[in-house]
Automatic annotation (TrEMBL):
SUPFAM superfamilies: Cytochrome P450. Its cofactor is heme. The keyword tRNA-binding does not apply. It comes from Glomus cerebriforme. Belongs to the cytochrome P450 family. This is Cytochrome P450. Keywords: Heme, Iron, Membrane, Metal-binding, Monooxygenase, Oxidoreductase, Transmembrane, Transmembrane helix. Signal peptide: none annotated. GO terms for cellular component: membrane. Heme binds at C439. The chain crosses the membrane at residues 6-24. PANTHER family: CYTOCHROME P450, P450, PUTATIVE (EUROFUNG)-RELATED. It is found in: Membrane.
Length: 499
């Protein structure tokens, strides 16, 4: 009984402390001129249920009533939402609005890898440096894409779960770029590239209801779960480590033995090896593996999503098939005597680029590009947000703006983007972000998707299993490719004679 009373007493003091901290925090923020907080019916729950019932409709209603910037009480915390007239301030002030801090709340990767905070902050810098010369990857990407087509589609096939197969197809050329030719055909490596993100997502999809108890508790739950229970990253990391250690040691030995006649491999594994050299014979292989894991997260899943949705948009819009095929055939015939397309030749696929850009525009999530403030900030409107505030950008509001895209902005129309490249950030097109934090891997991703779509058109006629239009899946404001099967029928009149 005494122990129980002591426990209750401690619990009571704890509750008093938490409530006092919250009140003090609110008091310290009382001086800020914050954006209007949308009114809500239910304490604690706030806007959470209303938001997820109809994300786009709810956000539109809030914009109509409160303007371009407002705040919602979601999952136990206040979040601020910005629209098309305000979002650019967030990305111009990237030192204040931090992507890595926001990402840590939902996927604290450095904890999952047992690394100190900030260990992975150089990932963007490395991506820009490693991808500065895309021509050195062009041949291997194209060779391995067609090798994947031969393996997974061959002379034609009905694919019941397209996204899963596309992840496997995309994994080989990306593996060739990241871990090199020595490992890009290794089945265990390819499985890790294709499935690592897919294995992780279900474990991260648990809604952050613990934040209703105390903000940040959900993150602590994730860290605890991945540290002591199921952590798929650990399994994939072990596979990657066991594979790259052999390759790295062989490369070091070859370099020491051959000296000036040694040919340096052009892949990200070699770049990371040189970054993490301890001495001429020793490499911090754990760090190499951890950065490879993050390159996988940043590339395979996203590229597979975009490519899969491009295929569905291709099926849904047959009126563009003829001119896309004409362009592909013309380019193929023009350069068929060359071993592969260089980047400048891929740049000639203008109509295909317009098509891909329209896929990116029309399949945008309701909100994205979230950031977290590392200090208080004042917008040009005079509204202020405190340090630690999560900021969400209403990206569909930007991509479906009638002023930019006409009276029917949701209609699929690649002609909107003539003379406007899919990789170029614009005020009304933010698929890859904008400003100094724009996605550094976008050029590699778009070139890979263009080549993938190019050869897919030349090799196959594509249609849905049902013969009907296939709409994307919309869940909680997020857009996912449908899972309806696709039929790939070999073109008997293909200009490609040998695959």
């Amino acid at each position: 009984m005494v122990i129980l009373m002591d426990y209750l007493q401690i619990l009571g003091f704890g509750l008093i402390f938490v409530i006092s901290a919250i009140l003090l925090k609110k008091k310290s923020r009382a001086k800020l001129n914050e954006p209007p907080l949308v009114s809500y019916k239910f304490p604690i729950i706030g806007h959470t249920f209303d938001y997820y019932k109809d994300v786009q409709g709810f956000l539109a209603k809030c914009r109509d009533e409160y303007g371009e910037i407002f705040s919602l009480y979601m999952w136990g915390t206040v979040q601020t939402y910005v629209g098309k007239t305000t979002y650019s301030e967030v990305y111009k002030n990237h030192h204040t609005f931090d992507f890595n801090k926001a990402m840590e709340d939902i996927m604290p990767m450095h904890h999952f890898l047992n690394r100190p905070e900030g260990f992975l902050n150089d990932i963007d810098k490395y991506a820009r440096e490693f991808m500065s010369d895309l021509d050195k990857f062009a041949e291997r990407v194209q060779k391995n894409l067609n090798k994947s087509y031969n393996e997974f589609i061959g002379d034609g096939k009905v694919i019941r779960s397209p996204l899963k197969v596309i992840q496997q197809i995309i994994s080989r050329p990306i593996a060739a770029t990241i871990v090199g030719e020595e490992l890009c055909n290794d089945n265990e490596i390819l499985d890790s590239f294709a499935n690592m993100t897919a294995d992780l997502v279900p474990l991260l999809s648990f809604p952050p209801i613990l934040n209703f108890i105390y903000p940040g508790l959900h993150q602590k739950f994730l860290i605890f779960k991945f540290k002591y229970f199921n952590n798929p990253i650990r399994t994939h990391r072990s596979i990657i480590l066991s594979k790259i250690i052999t390759v790295i040691n062989k490369r070091i030995n070859d370099k020491n033995r051959l000296r000036n006649s040694w040919k340096r491999p052009d892949d990200i594994l070699q770049e990371l090896t040189e970054r993490f050299m301890i001495d001429e014979n020793t490499v911090d292989i754990d760090s190499v593996a951890d950065f490879i894991i993050n390159f996988i997260f940043a590339s395979v899943h996203t590229t597979s999503f975009i490519f899969t949705q491009c295929l569905y948009d291709y099926v849904n819009n047959p009126e563009y098939h003829e001119e896309l095929l004409e362009e592909a055939t013309s380019i193929y015939n023009k350069y068929k005597d060359t071993p592969y397309y260089t980047i400048d030749k891929i740049a000639e696929m203008d109509k295909l680029d317009n098509f891909i850009k329209e896929t990116l525009r029309t399949n945008i999530n309701a909100t994205s590009m979230f950031r977290k403030t590392v200090s208080d900030f004042t917008f040009l409107s005079g509204y202020q947000v405190p340090k630690g505030r999560t900021i969400q950008t209403m990206t569909q509001h930007i991509h479906f703006d009638p002023k930019s895209y006409g009276p029917d902005p949701k209609k699929f129309n690649p002609y909107r983007h003539i003379n406007s490249q899919s990789t170029r950030p614009e005020r009304d097109y933010v698929a890859f972000g904008i400003g100094k934090t724009v996605c550094p891997g976008r050029f590699f991703a778009i070139n890979e998707i263009k080549v993938a779509m190019h050869f897919m058109q030349l090799r196959y006629k594509i249609r849905s299993v049902s013969g009907n239009r296939v709409e994307p899946i919309v869940f909680a404001g997020f857009i996912f490719p449908n899972d309806e099967g696709l039929i790939f029928e070999k073109r008997e009149d293909s200009v490609i004679q040998e695959f």
